[in-house]
Amino acid sequence: MTRPDLVIVGAGPAGMAAALAARDQGVRDILLLERDQHLGGILNQCIHPGFGLHQFKQDYTGPEFADQYIREVEAAPEITVSLRTFAARFAPDKTLTCLRPGRVDAIRARAVIFATGCRERTREMIPIPGTRPAGVFPAGLAQKMMNLEGLLPGRTVVIAGSGDIGLIMARRLTLEGARVQAVIELQAESRGLARNVVQCLEDFSIPLHCRHRITRIHGQNRVEKVSVAAVDDDLRDRPGTAFDIPCDTVLISVGLIPENELLEMAGAAMDLKANTPVVRELGVTSLPGVFVAGNAGNIYDLVDSVTRDSERVGQKAEAYLRGVA
Fold first, then answer.
1. Tens digit of pLDDT for each residue in 55-110?
2. CB-CB contact of 76 with 48 (8 Å)
3. Total structural domains within the chain
4. Do 219 and 275 fall into the same domain?
């Protein structure tokens, strides 16, 4: 069993920023765990610009923003990086059970920061009635398919929900030659950033139908069309407003769920509605010496805000190790 001073689970922007901040405060034995084969987390698939305007006063793409931290992490002798490492179990005594290629390891840390990010809500969580044909994807999965794997998920697309990933994918699909028929949003206005509505929808003449919902997905082997209806103030379908949109692909962009099952497993106090730990101050969970950073603790709109707050969490972890928190 290894016994580092600080273990950080997740090497996206939150995990890397927390590691570097703890290093800068004097922590000399930091273990950074990442289940993917690369550092950077979700930023690796976000090839669009708009990152770093606050943190670096530069307009970076996601991979460029991540690279600012990756180079510093890899050059830091105080930080040990373990890729392809999946944290499967966490105990209240701060013992992590991790799966690595070919073996299972136990790690007992003096302090732990969870920077595990989020997963996407799926069709089944809305839910949308209808058949279960090919062609229905979470928007983030479609983004990964396009930007990392070079695969086009479909040619004629409807997007359910107007979260930022869905808006960005509307533009991305259009630039790659697909036709985005519409974005369907249940609420009275888009849930994404105003700049994304303008740059991703209005600039490309993509319709945004607010106060509408997809009532059914049609198709056998592949999506053939969706049925859409307007809703009233109680979110019930308005009679006589239904219409169909032909498409071969539906992207789901209806929110994110923080990944905090390990904290819940260890008995941390949880806000079950949001799936986030209850914190008495930024990043400080109910378990002594256990912290949460980034989207695992709170859904952020900007990665600049993620890294700013994660640096503060790294400093809090260092203060705990010194016995002053």
1. 999 999 999 999 999 999 999 999 999 999 999 999 999 999 999 999 999 999 99
2. no
3. 2
4. no
Say whether pLDDT at 214 is over 80: yes
Cα–Cα dist 14/33, whole Å: 12
Place of tokens 């299972």: 104
Structural domain boundaries enclosing 181? 122-252
Residue 1 lies in a domain: no
pTM above 0.70, yes or no: yes
- CATH code, 180: 3.50.50.60
Q: Are residues 136 and 181 in the same domain?
A: yes
pLDDT for 323 equals: 87
CA–CA distance, 73 with 285 (Å, rounded to integer): 25
Element spanning 164, H or E: helix 164-175
Average pLDDT, the chain: 96
The CA distance from 263 to 154, in Å, is: 38
Contact at 8 Å (CB) between 19 and 303? no
Determine the Cα angle at 248 with ends 245 and 250, to 5°: 75
Contact 115, 293 (CB under 8 A): yes
**In this structure, what token pair is assigned to residue 43?**
């930023």
